[in-house]
Design a protein that fits this description.
Structural class: alpha/beta
Shape: globular
Helix content: 25-40%
Strand order of the largest sheet: 6-7-8-3-9-10
Low-confidence stretches: none
Strand content: 25-35%
Number of helices: 10
Length: about 240
């Protein structure tokens, strides 16, 4: 589904990603792990066109999307839920969700159908559809951010630290929804601070260190290598 080769990104003159290769198979959850500053969020921003790349290719279903604008990349089928959620605080839940469909040419009935799908996925949002997003809890805002991305009907959903700062009970809900979205057919690329959680729900995983891929493989196998987790992830808890 998503194929990355030789991706190199630099801020000013300092390289952040050093020619990394990633494969995200169709219908799978792929975890991207690493310590702070390893280049995880930078990778997602490069894929979604939010930052420029010095070299490499990013292919979605065989099409190189590297030079496309962010809105064009969304239209191609890649949705990005950024770290910190970044909901539109002064807009209602439903207005936030409608913005997620900006690149789509939905009819009124199609728009309502997609909204109802999001409300079925997140019943709490249905109850609060007229509430301003900025007045909601962190967990509810994360639901809004994910639902907003789902409104574009993405082929690949990229999630950056979806559990960050949330209570354990809310994390469980968000994780359940991520699994449900994947089972409905959406491929997921997940950046997550809780490596143990990410490895438990993903099919494959990559570990970055200082902008390079140092480990790649099936999540179940990586989770069993405690020595490696200690070296790169401090035991897999970060």
């Amino acid at each position: 589904m998503l194929k990355i080769r030789g991706l190199t990104v630099a801020y000013s003159v300092a390289p952040v990603l050093h020619g990394i290769d990633l494969d995200v198979p169709r219908g799978k959850i792929v975890a991207l792990l690493g310590a702070n500053g390893a280049g995880k969020s930078t990778t997602l921003k490069a894929i979604s066109g939010l930052i420029g790349c010095r070299d490499g290719t990013i292919e979605l279903e065989g099409e190189n999307i590297l030079k496309k604008r962010p809105d064009e990349i969304v239209h191609c089928g890649v949705a990005h839920v950024p770290e910190g959620r970044l909901v539109f605080a002064g807009l209602t839940v439903e207005e936030n969700l409608k913005i997620g469909s900006f690149t789509c040419k939905y009819s009124a009935s199609e728009l309502r159908q997609h909204l109802e799908h999001c409300y079925e996925l997140f019943p709490r949002l249905a109850e609060r559809r007229t509430q301003l997003a900025g007045t909601m809890s962190g967990g509810e805002q994360q639901m809004v951010a994910i639902a907003r991305a789902i409104m574009s009907q993405p082929k690949v959903l990229m999630l950056d630290e979806p559990s960050l700062g949330l209570a354990p009970v809310i994390i469980d809900t968000i994780v359940d929804k991520i699994i449900e979205i994947n089972k409905q057919g959406t491929t997921i690329l997940l950046v997550e601070q809780n490596a143990q959680l990410a490895l438990a729900i993903s099919h494959y995983a990559y570990i970055l260190a200082v902008g390079e891929v140092v480990v790649a493989g099936e999540s179940e196998e990586i989770a069993q290598d405690q020595k490696m987790l200690d070296v790169y992830l401090g035991g897999g808890k970060k």
